[in-house]
Amino acid sequence: MMGNEPTNFIPALTDQEGPQPGPSWEKRGWLDTVAGSAADLVAAMDPTEMRLAVAKAAKDAGRAMDPRAVEKAAALSIAAMTLVRLYRVRGHMAADLDPLGLSNREGPADLTLEWHGLAGKEAEEVYVGGVLGMEWTTVGKLHQRLREVYCGKVGLEYMHIADTEERRFLQDKFESPGETIQFTPEGKKAILAAVLRGEQYEEFLAKKYVGTKRFGLDGGESMIPALEAVIKHGGSAGVREIIYGMAHRGRLNVLANVMAKPYRVIFHEFSGGSANPDEVGGSGDVKYHLGTSTDREFDGISVHMSLVPNPSHLEAVNPVVLGKARAQQAIRDDLAKKDQVLPVLIHGDAAFAGQGVVWESLSLSGVPGYDTGGCIHFIINNQIGFTTSPKFARSSPYPSDVAKGVMAPILHVNGDDPEAVTFACKLAVEYRQTFHRDVVIDMWCYRRFGHNEGDEPKFTQPLMYDAIRGHPKVSKIYEGRLIAEGVVEPGTRDALAAEFVRLLDDEFEAGKTYKPNEADWFGGRWAGLNKPVDPETARRNVDTAIEPKMLDALGRVLTDVPADLDVHKTLDRVLAAKREMFSSGEGFDWATAEALAFGSLVMEGYGVRLSGQDSGRGTFSQRHAVWVDQKTERKYVPLSTLPHGKFEVHDSTLSEYGVLGFEYGFAMADPKSLVLWEGQFGDFANGAQIMIDQFIASGEAKWLRANGLVMLLPHGYEGQGPEHSSARLERFLQLCANDNIQVCNITSPANYFHVLRRQMLRPFRKPLVIMSPKSLLRHPLAKSDRADFLGDSQFKRILSDTTEIADDKVRRLVLCSGKVAYDLIEARDAAGQDDVSIVRIEQLFPFPGDPLAIRLKRMTNLQEVIWCQEEPRNNGSWFFVNERIEEALTAAGHQGMRPRYAGRDAAASPATGLASRHKAQQEALIADALGLNA
C-alpha cells in the first residue's frame, strides 16, 4: 500500500508479567487504534509523492512521459489507489455470499468506477505500484481484479485489524496470484465426497427415523470438508489436538463425518439405546447434546479430537472449550507457543449475534491466564434464527460483527461453494498458527427444513422456503462445476452416494445389536480416579493432615519477604501477624489456612489454579497471594516458588458466566489441579446460573463427565444490603441430588484447609460449592491452632460447640451453619445458658444424617431442636434441612420431635439495605433461637 504504515501496536500475547516502567494499568504497545486505523485506511496520498513515484516507474519501464503526462498519471493513480483501498475495506459488502440470492448484495456506490471518476477510462493505463501483483495495468483490469478478489464467493473483513503485519498477511493471501482458492483434481474429488457424506447421512436419518428431531445440517454440508481441512492443515502446522464446541445444528453430522464416531453407535442411540453400559448409571441426554473423542490421521499426522457435550443453551459451551484447551496446553507444555492445541467453536448466526457469553468468551482472547492462542469460530449462518429474520435479530450487517471487538479477521463465504468454504478454513488455520489470534468464518447457507425436522417454517418465512424448495443441493451444484472442469464424469455423484448408503445400511443393521462395553470418563489423565461406590465412607476415609516439617516450610515461604521487594506497610503488618501464628502455633486465620492448603498441594505435586475478579489480593484484602513492589510494581507470588506442582492466581475479566465456564472446562481436562473460581461477592454467581445448572450440577449425570471445580462464594449477613449478603445458598441446595455436588458453609479455618485438600486427595472428583465468609476472615473466634492441621485431623462435616456441654445436659439444641454460629455462641455465653448447645453443620450436602443421628441419640434430655439461619425463611437451608433433621431425630429415638425455624421472615429481597433494620432482625432471630424472648 502507498503512504506510511502505522507501527505494530498489538503486544505479543504472553502470560509472563515482568517489571516494566510506567503505570501497571498501561498495556504496553497500545496506541489510539481508531486514529491508527483511520490513517491507514482513508488518509489522502500525497500528490507530490505520487508524481515522483509515477515518474520513476515510467522511467524504469522505458516510458517517456512529460510533466503534464506525469501529473495526469499521478491523478489517475491516486483515484485507482483510493478504489483499491475501498475494496479492501468494503469489498465484502458486494461479495456473492447468499446461496439463495435473496439478500441485496449489489454493494455500496463507492465501489463503482463512477464514484471515483473513472467511468469511461477503463482502457487507460494506470500505475499501481505492485498492488495485486501489478505495476502497470488498465483501469478496467484493475477493477475486474478487485471484483474477483474481494467480491467473489469469499468476502474478507480485515481492515479493522490494527496490526499491520496481520493485515498484510491476509492481503497477500487474497491479492497475490497463486495464493487464492486452488485445489488439485484429487482435492476437488475429496471435497465432493465429503459433501456427499454429509448430505446422504442426513437423508438416511430422515428415512430411517421419520419425524425424529436431528437438527440436520441440510443446506450447510460444505462445513464437512471445511472442518476436515482444519484437521489436515492444522496437523501439518503443528496442531496435535483439536477441541470442538457446537450447538445442535449439524452436530450429529459432525460426530459421524468429522469426529468419526461409528455410525452404528449413533443408530443405536437413535433407536433409544444408551451411549454407555447400563451399569454406569446417569440420566443420559438427547443424542444431539452428546460429545465424543477420537483420533484422525491425515498425511501421516495423527490429531486427537474431542467434542465437548453441550446443553440446549446454544453458546454455553464456548468458555468450557476454551478452558479445556488452556488446560490441555498446560498439560502438553504448550503454553509458550500454543501451537499444539486448537479450540474450534461452531456457532449459529442468531446465537453468535445475540448471546452475551459469546463476547464474554471472545474477551478472554489474549488475556494472561486465559489466552488459548486463538480460537477458530465457524458460524453456520442460516440467515434465520428459529423463526426470527436477521433484521429482528441484530442491528449490524453480519452476525459476526461482535468479533471485531478483538480485531479478529472475518471470512464471509458462500456455503454453496465447498471449495471456498474449505479455503476459508485452511486460511483460518494458517492465520491462527501464525499470529495466535481468533479468526471467524461466516458461512452463509440455509436451513432446508425448519428449526427441527418437524417444524413448518413457511408459517413465518414463506418466500425464503419457496426459494429453498427449488434450490439444488450443494453436491449437485458442485458436481456440475467439476464436470465442466473435466475433473469428474457425469454420474460420479450418484455412484459415490450409492456406495456410501450401502455402508450406512450395513452400519444400521450392526446398530441393532450394538452394546456399549465401557464408558470413557476415566481414561487418559483421569486414569486412577473413579466414581465413589460408598459415598459416606469415601468422604470420610482420607488423610488430609500434613507433616510438621511441611507446615514450617510453608510458614517460611508465606512470611519471608525477598530483600529486593518493597511491600506495602499494611501488608508488612499482615506478614508480621502470620509470623506470630507460625511461631506461637495459635490464631491461624482463614487466609493462612487457605494458603497452607494451596501450598501443601503444590508441594505434593498438584496444580492449583485460582481465578476470579480481584482474586490475587482478595476482595476483602485478606488473601495477598500476590505481593506488589511499591516502587516498581513488580509482582511476587510466594506460592509460585514452591517445587513439584504449580500455583497460579489470575485476576479475571469482569465476567461470571464466561470465566466460570472457562474454569469448569479447565477442571474437566485436568483432575490433577485444584481449580477454584471465586465470586467477588457470592451473588455474582447469579450471572453464571446457566453454567451452574447445565454443567456443574448435572454434567456428570447427563454426560458422565466428572469435575472437581471449587466455587468460592462470599456469603453472610452483615448489613451490606440485598446484593452483597446472599450467595443464594438455597439455589445450590435445590440442585442437590444423586451425589452430584458438595455444598459447604464452613466456619473454621482448619476445616476449610481440610476440605480443599480432601478435594484432591480422594480418588474421585465432585464439584464443591463453598459459602465463603466475609467477617469470619478476621473474626476472633474463627481461628485454628497448629494441631488442627497436623496428626490425624481431617475435615469435619459437623462441628461441636466451642463450649463443652455434657450431652445428657443439653435441653435445647441449636443447629446452624456459617457465620451465624458465632453470633449465637456469643449471645448464649453472655446469657449464661448452660443447657443450650450450638452445633454447626459444615457440610449441607451430602447431608451428614448418620453422624447427626448419633449425636442426637446421646442427648437424652433433649426437648427442643432449632434450625437457625440468617437468610429469610424462603431462602437459605431451611427447606432443605428440615426433613433431614427430622429423619435424624427419628433415627436417634426422638420420635415425634421436629426442628423449629428461627430466622428472618420470608422476603422477596434477600436482605434489607438499612443497617438499623438489619441489626434489629439479627438480634431478634438470635433471641428466638436461644429462647431469650420467653
UniProtKB/TrEMBL annotation:
Keywords attached to this entry: Glycolysis, Oxidoreductase, Thiamine pyrophosphate
Keyword Oxidoreductase on entry: yes
Essential cofactor(s): thiamine diphosphate
E.C. designation(s): 1.2.4.2
Single Gene Ontology BP annotation: glycolytic process
Keyword Iron: no
Region described as Disordered: spans on this chain: 1-24
Annotated SMART domains: Transket_pyr
Molecular function as annotated in GO: oxoglutarate dehydrogenase (succinyl-transferring) activity; thiamine pyrophosphate binding
GO cellular component: cytosol; oxoglutarate dehydrogenase complex
Gene3D superfamilies the record matches: 3.40.50.12470, 3.40.50.970, Multifunctional 2-oxoglutarate metabolism enzyme, C-terminal domain (3.40.50.11610), TPP helical domain (1.10.287.1150)
Quaternary organization: Homodimer. Part of the 2-oxoglutarate dehydrogenase (OGDH) complex composed of E1 (2-oxoglutarate dehydrogenase), E2 (dihydrolipoamide succinyltransferase) and E3 (dihydrolipoamide dehydrogenase); the complex contains multiple copies of the three enzymatic components (E1, E2 and E3).
Biological function: E1 component of the 2-oxoglutarate dehydrogenase (OGDH) complex which catalyzes the decarboxylation of 2-oxoglutarate, the first step in the conversion of 2-oxoglutarate to succinyl-CoA and CO(2).
Cited NCBIfam families: 2oxo_dh_E1, PRK09404.1, PRK12270.1
Protein name: 2-oxoglutarate dehydrogenase E1 component
Gene source species: Erythrobacter dokdonensis DSW-74
Taxonomic path: Bacteria, Pseudomonadati, Pseudomonadota, Alphaproteobacteria, Sphingomonadales
